[in-house]
């Protein structure tokens, strides 16, 4: 196994190359996963951006569209389209900000909380089935740990 440079640790040229190779493998692997996930999404199913926005609201509480856009590093207009779709489905509610009436605060509705809590996604069901059928318990545990690290990496990039 190649040496991986760690934060705060000493690193030679070999360590930097290994980190760059890891970054490349992550980019390629995540990109392929995203493409296949988009292809597998059924009509009417929540999209990745919709699920992400709802998960943010569930974990962090009420937020503005601009705050969600900043967290996801997308334009407010793109997040606005995502939020509008969620509002039409009754999964997100918009209320005026009591402190600044020009802003709107987004919250999950009861249906939105249920959707997040149940993981209502055919894609999640398909991924779970593939994991169950094709991966060992140890591999699933590794992917679970990697998923947490990927979320942390996404938050830092």
UniProtKB/TrEMBL annotation:
Q: Which UniProt keywords apply?
A: DNA-binding, Transcription, Transcription regulation
Q: Which InterPro entries match?
A: HTH-type_Bedaq_tolerance (IPR052526), HTH_MarR-typ (IPR000835), Tscrpt_reg_MarR-type_CS (IPR023187), WH-like_DNA-bd_sf (IPR036388), WH_DNA-bd_sf (IPR036390)
Q: What residue stretches are annotated with the HTH marR-type domain?
A: 1-155
In Pfam terms, one family for this protein is MarR_2
Q: Which Gene3D superfamilies match?
A: 1.10.287.100, Winged helix-like DNA-binding domain superfamily/Winged helix DNA-binding domain (1.10.10.10)
- Gene Ontology MF terms in the entry: DNA binding; DNA-binding transcription factor activity
Record-given protein name: MarR family transcriptional regulator
Q: What organism, scientifically named, is this protein from?
A: Streptantibioticus silvisoli
């Amino acid at each position: 196994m190649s040496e991986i440079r760690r934060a705060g640790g000493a690193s030679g040229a070999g360590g930097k190359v290994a980190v760059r190779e890891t970054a490349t493998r992550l980019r390629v692997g995540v990109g392929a996963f995203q493409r296949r996930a988009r292809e597998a999404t059924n009509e009417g199913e929540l999209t990745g951006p919709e699920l992400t926005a709802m998960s943010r609201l569930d974990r962090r509480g009420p937020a503005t569209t601009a705050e969600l856009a900043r967290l996801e590093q997308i334009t407010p207009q793109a997040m606005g389209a995502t939020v509008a779709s969620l509002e039409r489905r009754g999964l997100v509610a918009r209320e005026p900000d009591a402190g600044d009436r020009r802003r709107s605060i987004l919250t999950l509705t009861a249906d939105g909380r249920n959707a997040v809590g149940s993981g209502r996604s055919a894609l999640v069901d398909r991924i779970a089935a593939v994991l169950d059928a094709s991966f060992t318990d140890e591999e699933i545990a590794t992917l679970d740990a990697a998923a947490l690290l990927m979320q942390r990496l996404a938050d830092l990039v």
